[in-house]
Design a protein that fits this description.
Number of strands: 23
Distance between the termini: 67 Å
Bound molecules: copper (II) ion
Structural class: mainly beta
Strand order of the largest sheet: 6-8-4-1-2-12-11-14-21-17-16
Strand content: 25-35%
């Protein structure tokens, strides 16, 4: 911690000036602190995801930096957009190629509000079980201010850095933030097991016998920004039906895109495949017919409507449902094209 607090007990202009000079020279002698924080958390089976900056509110001094660690298999970015900047999409015309803000800024970039900073996509490699090799990204804060940060891939994952003058006393130390990060992660990951009940038929969620939930999530706020608890699973991952039956998938996540994909994974999973059509009853759902385990069918993104904001055009209702009618018996494996590497896979057994 910075040693400037003894100047605060004695009033007087001269002393204040001295304190500023001491603080200035302290900064020059490289006493700037690098704080530690985390972007994302996950359960060992990767199915429960804390889509959250942990913690998502930090107070630091001008000249300090924060290093974020990315310990999950789910993708995240750490991004500081300029005040009022239009939020860019997570991916460009070619899927999985990030747009950036624009572009990606190097590790150790500085942010003062004048130029955007973004880490690009950081995550654990597929085969990595240990978080020891987790990638990190550091941002320096030379100027006083309140700076919001976001994840370009997760709409409900944000936070604030409060950068104070050197003469101010910081409210918390690193130990406090470490404990807070652990606590928030445990709460979010714990929430996902409770959420699972909403995707099970017969409870208050109203699911029918041929319904499958495509992920379930919940957004919470800490006061500084949003955190999301997401279950990256098909709830009832194996379902048994009869020839001629229709299975309906419904996304129950507030802001995460998922797909229901049979067969070959498309290069761009965002649009539905050509054999998928809007449902004939006119409701906002898509449908397909599968007659062979060789069929390739992609639902396209199943996405809830984004949250509306005053003075902006209201959002469209979104497409959250996908129905498939099975016309032959067999075992039909499918996956979410976005989260299959988290184990988001399912099976329809048709008798
Ligand atoms: Cu998914």
């Amino acid at each position: 911690m910075r040693q400037v607090s003894n100047g605060r007990s004695k009033p007087g202009f001269l002393f204040a000036l001295t304190a500023i000079l001491i603080a200035g020279s302290a900064a020059k002698t490289a006493q700037a602190k690098e704080w530690q924080a985390i972007a994302g958390g996950e359960s060992p089976d990767r199915g429960s995801q804390a889509l959250a900056f942990l913690p998502n509110e930090v107070w630091i001094h001008a000249g300090d930096s924060i290093r974020w660690t990315f310990p999950t298999h789910e993708r995240h970015t750490l991004t500081f957009l300029k005040p009022g900047q239009i939020r860019p999409p997570g991916f460009g015309p070619i899927f999985d190629v990030p747009v950036g803000c624009p572009g990606i800024t190097p590790d150790g970039s500085s942010f003062d509000g004048s130029t955007c900073v973004t880490s690009g996509i950081l995550r654990l490699n597929d085969n990595t079980k240990s978080t020891e090799n987790a990638p990190t990204y550091s941002v320096g804060f030379p100027a006083v201010g309140n700076f919001k940060f976001v994840d370009l891939l997760h709409a409900d994952m944000s936070g604030v850095v409060h950068v104070l003058n050197l003469s101010e006393t910081l409210p918390h130390d690193q130990d406090f933030y470490d404990r807070q990060a652990q606590g928030e992660q445990a709460l979010l990951l714990g929430d996902t097991s409770r959420l699972e009940g909403r995707g099970t038929p017969g409870d208050n969620g109203g699911a029918q016998s041929n319904d499958v939930a495509v992920g379930i999530g919940e957004v919470v706020t800490t006061g500084a920004g949003l955190q999301t608890a997401s279950l990256m699973r098909f709830v009832r991952g194996t379902i048994v039906v009869r020839v001629g039956d229709t299975v309906q998938w419904t996304s129950l996540d507030p802001s995460i895109n998922h797909t229901v994909t049979f067969g070959v994974e498309p290069a761009d999973p965002r649009p539905p495949s050509a054999n998928v059509v809007p449902v004939s009853d006119g409701s906002a759902a898509r449908q397909a017919v599968i007659g062979s385990t060789e069929d390739s069918v992609n639902s396209g993104f199943l996405s809830p409507a984004p949250q509306d904001r005053a003075n902006l055009a209201q959002s469209s209702p979104g497409v959250t449902r996908f129905r498939v009618t099975f016309t032959s018996p067999g075992t039909f494996d499918y996956f979410c094209a976005i989260h299959d590497d988290l184990g988001m896979k399912g099976t329809v057994i048709v008798h």
